[in-house]
Amino acid sequence: MKFFDFHTHLFSHAYFDGLVRQSPEGIPHDQFLKKLMESGIELPPVDPQAHLDLLYRQLDESGVDRFVSFASSPDEIPVLAGLLPANPRVTGFALFNPAGEGAEDQLDLLKQDGFSGLVLFPVLHRYFPQDPALNPVWRKIEALGFLITIHFGILKIRLRDIAGLPRTFGGQFSNPINLIEVADRHPSIRFIIPHFGGGYFRETLMLGANSANIYVDTSSSNTWIDYQESDLTLSAVFRKTRHVFGSRRILFGTDTGILPRGFRADIQEEQLKAMAGAGFTREDIHRVVYHNALELTGIVEPVITPVHEN
Fold first, then answer.
1. 76-104 pLDDT, tens per residue?
2. Where do the domains of the chain lie?
3. Model's pTM, two decimal places?
4. Burial grade of 95 (CB within 10 A; 0-12, 13-18, 19 or more)
5. With the CA atoms of 279, 254, 83 and 106 taken in that order, what torsion angle do they form, in degrees rounded to the nearest 10?
6. Which fold has domain 3-297?
């Protein structure tokens, strides 16, 4: 079985350098490195390709053929852009703030750099998607054909915490229902809600029932299940999601990122068991873990014609 992981973070050396620069505590690099080591985290190689090659070895062991990689900070965008031409297994998504200065011009640059999608964090950048001021940005996103992964729910970024960056996240921006107006107004934009809504599971189901251009990804350990009103299991989450979204709008993801842990094979195994427990057919599972992502990204795999000897 082949896999297409729709949710991984590059977390390159440049990302960590950026954290040190942003730290309000003026944390020295060696002290930051010590904090990382105490947290069980390794810095990746300085060479981005060497970093990616480490990940390839782990992905190959787990049958992951392709993956979406997020440039999770402005520092990482040129790094990932530089990797894309020589690494066809990677589909690049770039961090993007539609409320930021020069957002429309940035979209042109990201398209030129080969990015297929954008990663949005309304909670981090403190905006409502339906803000009329963002209408020109949404129109341009639609015209350029970007895919959108947009994070809702509780936002915890462990690496930012280690660097001492303040939590300035706005909870009022965390509800996926805020996306409904934009999704309906721009039906050709495909929106992916990660982590089944990150705690807003009911609202994510409502959004998916309303708008056919909404997808979910299955990434992370999904600990948000622990604070739901009713007892939920991961199998129940998959079952309810398939009931509303069907199997064609669910995308496999792991939230792979930091080293030395690397690829989250534990999450891959847990999700396969959960889908089996939810009654997914073999065809459903193949769709979720591979074919849906191929269709969404427009990747056409080569057809290998067998050679018949005379």
1. 999 999 999 999 999 999 999 999 999 99
2. 3-297
3. 0.94
4. buried
5. 100
6. TIM Barrel (3.20.20)
